[in-house]
Write a structure and sequence with these properties.
The chain has 11 helices and 16 strands. With about 400 residues, it is an alpha/beta fold. It has 2 domains: about 290 residues, Glycoside hydrolase/deacetylase (TIM Barrel), CATH 3.20.20.370; about 45 residues. The strands form 4 sheets. Strands 5, 6, 9, 10, 11, 13, 14, 15 and 16 form a 9-stranded parallel beta sheet that branches. A 3-stranded mixed beta sheet has the order 2-3-12, covered by helices on one side. The chain has a two-stranded antiparallel sheet with strand order 1-4. Helix 7 links the parallel strand 9 and strand 10. Helix 3 packs antiparallel against helix 4. The longest helix has 19 residues. The relative contact order is 0.18.
Length: about 400
């Protein structure tokens, strides 16, 4: 069922004006000419559904293009876009969801899960799944016996990105308990987590909130999580992405804004599907008609541990870069930190390394600039738009 948003004509005008203000130069273009299309940014079919009209197929993986951006461009004519920093024709934001902080805590529970999964696979005659589960369990058991954990070394991600001149945004959970109905996860006040948070912040990386599944359907729930994470980090947290992309639109945008967030990156496909879910590669302000400056920065590429998209990530990235360059937008990509363990997501981390190399080449050639989520928002907020006067 598609989320339906009822907009008045005046609200459409305000949203259209915000779109023109954020992406075009000059910013006094006739916004009313695109007003009839802005509803597409606020409503879409939620869940694990494919693109309505995929623009690209990568080995069977459907990828959506920036069709709405092209509609806007066609209506407004040959109009110059706002420049990204350094004058680059596109921007790239690398992000990471920190679903697991480590792979060894409460290891007995994890081992029990492998036993149950392998038994279920045997009963269903799923031989490949059984073998894969046994292989993963055996490797992790060896790591546990040697007290070696490839997942909890965030510094390895920092070193890799620093080598390529990149600073990314890490989305951390902010839970009061490590064991809960959320799963076998981690606490925001875990001393190990606090050390990593402070290291990221001091090194120029951004920390955002990875909102929990069962505490994020109200403004108060989001506020509690933000405060816990800010207490651990020691500074403000501006960006948010829901765990499993469970945000319920359009209400979630209002909750995020009221809870103190200024950047959302929650509009995206569930793998294997990839691309621009609302047809745009540009950040947009879904609450501009209410006078709020919250930016939605759609996520176009997300890694996956299994399925047809897993081996296609680097190829899909290339196509998305071309599309984003053509419309002058921002390409947001997401790689989970726990997938550094190749046994859990074969070849995914290697493709991430390849993508970083491509980004470095693009930046060196002046073809792109890399930004954190908040850096992208700050750049777009450099405007005299009275819609943002209350920020």
């Amino acid at each position: 069922m598609t989320h339906s948003v009822e907009l008045s004509d005046s609200d459409r005008q305000r949203l259209a004006r915000a779109i023109v203000q954020d992406r075009y130069q000059p910013a006094d273009l006739p916004a009313d000419s695109i007003a009839e299309h802005v509803d597409n940014l606020l409503q879409f079919t939620p869940g694990e559904v494919p693109p309505d009209e995929p623009a690209f197929l990568s080995n069977g993986v459907a990828v959506a293009g920036p069709s709405l951006d092209r509609t806007f461009d066609d209506i407004l004519g040959d109009t110059k876009k706002r420049a990204w920093p350094t004058g680059a024709p596109m921007a790239i934001a690398v992000t990471h969801d920190v679903d697991l902080f480590d792979g060894l805590s409460h290891f007995g529970l994890r081992a029990a899960g492998w036993v149950a999964s392998s038994a279920q696979a045997l009963l269903r005659g799923q031989v490949d799944r059984f073998r894969s589960t046994v292989e993963r369990a055996s490797q992790w058991t060896r790591w546990w016996a040697a007290n070696k954990d490839p997942v909890n070394d965030i510094s390895a991600w920092q070193a890799l990105e620093a080598e390529h001149g990149i600073r990314s945004t890490f989305f951390f959970l902010s839970l009061a308990k490590a064991l809960s109905k959320e799963g076998r996860l981690y606490r925001a006040d875990d001393p190990r987590v606090i050390r990593v948070l402070k290291s990221l912040h001091s090194g120029g990386w951004e920390v955002g909130l990875h909102a929990a599944r069962y505490e994020s359907d109200t403004t108060l729930g989001l506020e509690r999580q933000r405060v816990r994470l800010e207490n651990a980090l020691g500074t403000a947290v501006k960006a948010i992405r829901y765990h499993y992309l469970t945000a319920s639109f359009p209400d979630a945008w209002r909750h995020m804004a009221d809870a103190g967030f200024t950047v959302s990156s929650n509009v995206g496909f569930h793998p294997p599907y990839q691309g621009f879910r609302t047809g745009t590669a540009w950040p947009y302000r879904p609450l501009a008609h209410q006078g709020n400056a919250l930016f939605e920065m759609p996520m176009a590429l997300m890694d996956v541990a299994h399925g047809p998209a897993r081996t296609q990530l680097s190829c899909i990235f290339d196509w998305l870069c071309k599309q984003t360059t053509e419309v002058g937008g921002l390409l947001v990509i997401n790689f989970h930190t726990n997938y550094i363990a190749d046994i859990d997501a074969p070849d995914v981390h290697q493709q991430f390394r390849e993508i970083l190399g491509k980004i470095k080449t693009m930046v060196t050639a002046g073809q792109a600039v890399t930004l954190t989520m908040s850096e992208a928002a700050d750049h777009l907020m450099e405007t005299d738009d009275p819609l943002l006067a209350d920020r």
